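Hi support team,

I submitted a single chain yesterday and got back a structure, but I'm not sure I'm reading the token output correctly. Could someone confirm the output below corresponds to the sequence I sent? I've pasted both exactly as they appear in my results page.

Thanks,
R.
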Amino acid sequence: MFNNLPGFLAESQYRMPKDLDKAPFGAGLKFDGSFFSFLGQHPEYAQVWNEMMAAYTADVGSWLDFYPVDVLLKDAAGNESPLLVDVGGGLGQDLERFQKRLPHAEGRLYLQDKPDVIEKARAIDGVEKMAHDFFSEQPIKGARVYFYHSVLVEHDWPDEKVISILKSVRPAMQPGYSKILLNENIITARQPNQYVTALDLNMISFFATRERDEQAWRRLVDAAGLKIVKIWTSSVAPESIIEVDLA
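Hi R., thanks for writing in. Yes, this is the structure output for that exact sequence:
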């Protein structure tokens, strides 16, 4: 993929590409279409992609290492109330880590993703698996946390789609109680994390796009009728947590 990047950038006169169907990876594989279209036509690679994402989230530091989860648990409603909904949670790797770290956390846990992904997801004690299209209204009402890990990245969804995804969960949120936690990469203007900048090159090579900066995230959250409370970062994890409340 990277072998095709210099020529791709030269041809575009070093401007950021706008067509997700025209990325350096396509030139390398002689494929006309987006990366996810390629996965759709090659399920064997889609399986590798899902397993890679599970390994990626296991390899990087966890949000549980730097976000004050104890505050969420202290204020949670109790055993029969939804505690955390992992939206687009893939094979369940984040909830599995949550369970191992916090085995006595009270409240119901949900794993949501597309039906074909949910079929392959791990069976985790105490976690309810649910097929859900995150463009439709969130069916789990009043959860303490709606968690999105690497779901809203630009290579998956352009700005207008991200706004639509965020708007779909807003009616389910309980004012003064529910939060959205976005576990995402953020490119900083100064001294950016080298891990994140390396991913930025991956984004261009595979998806003809890039990682978002803080201003871009604030613009998207505001457009969805929500507000950023705080952006949590740490030296132990390259990804950040964007804490979001109802506006």
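A quick pointer for reading it: The chain has a mean pLDDT of 87. Let us know if anything else looks off.

Best,
Support desk
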